[in-house]
Amino acid sequence: MNSQVNPPFTSSKQASEPMTALIAEGGGQRGIFTAGVLDAWLDAQFDPFDLFIGTSAGSQNLTSFLARQKGYAKRLIRGLSRHKRFYQLGRGLVGGHVVDLDWYFEKTTRGSFALDFDTASKTLGQRQLLITATSARDRQGYFLSPSDDNNHWRELLKASSALPFLYKQGVKLTPWLSSDAANQSAEQTPALQEDFFLDGGLAAPLPVREAYQRGARKIVVIRTVNADFQAQSAWVHKLKSWICVSGYCPKTIDYLVQHEQAYQEELAFMANPPADVEIVQIFADDTLQSKLLGSTDADLRQDYRTGIAAGNAFLQRGNEEKVAPVAFNVQHGNIIQPQALSA
Fold this sequence. Notes:
Oligomer: single chain
Number of strands: 10
Domain PNPLA: 22-212
Active site: 56, 199
InterPro entries: Acyl_Trfase/lysoPLipase, DUF6363, NTE, PNPLA_dom, YjjU-like
Number of helices: 13
Keywords: Hydrolase, Lipid degradation, Lipid metabolism
Protein name: Patatin family protein
Distance between the termini: 38 Å
Largest sheet: 10 strands, mixed
């Protein structure tokens, strides 16, 4: 595993400027759009962020971005997430995991799918990465900081991606979970260590408010839905169709309702943010072809190219206007600019 740290990336941030956060939404295989955005930024050596928050596939994308592994997330999504071993609906009907996250993350320990946590940790430095996960006990969202233990970091990524029904009861983070890692008080740690954790998108699908509460006043959000999204996520519709033949409807539907409520609250915050915060959203085009699972390789390649174009357009617009990049939505190659982010 390569532990060499790349040269410092370009940043126009001055000491007097406010904290800047990058948030990566989940979305399963649709995260290949995010992978394209971040790979474009790796090419440009663009990384001015102080705080990173990732949910589900978004946390994996942010980790590979910090590891400076251009193309890694694309290979992972196109390779492992489309492998017949990864997703088998029939396993869920006989008590197994529909999605084999154990196999998936074990593959990230070696070979061409090895994730360079050492470089990611050194690149992160004194900045902060938070990986969202939902406690199966209290259904609250937790923002977990990885330690220098590579296995701990990998387990956090697994927990953040563990959808109910698809990965059964979730991931137990003992013995790694501490009050520092969980960003909670020491008194809460014993209970947390007994918890199983599920996909962070259930309780914190779009943690913009969390970034704001932690002091970020410039927040960049990479979305995996179109700009007009207001109703249920695509994965919610798909998951409901799977669940209803399984006998697990009641409990899992509660999770889905919680997800929808949390999502709407974040959308409301972004629609009417406090006066002292600037929020930039990079949207996937509404013609994005990929899905939660079951995408074709052609669809994934197309959406990755769309992400590359979005990442480059973000940087280009910032250079042209001599300010931080603006919010935009890529639609058939055009840029829509709902809000400028001043320097």
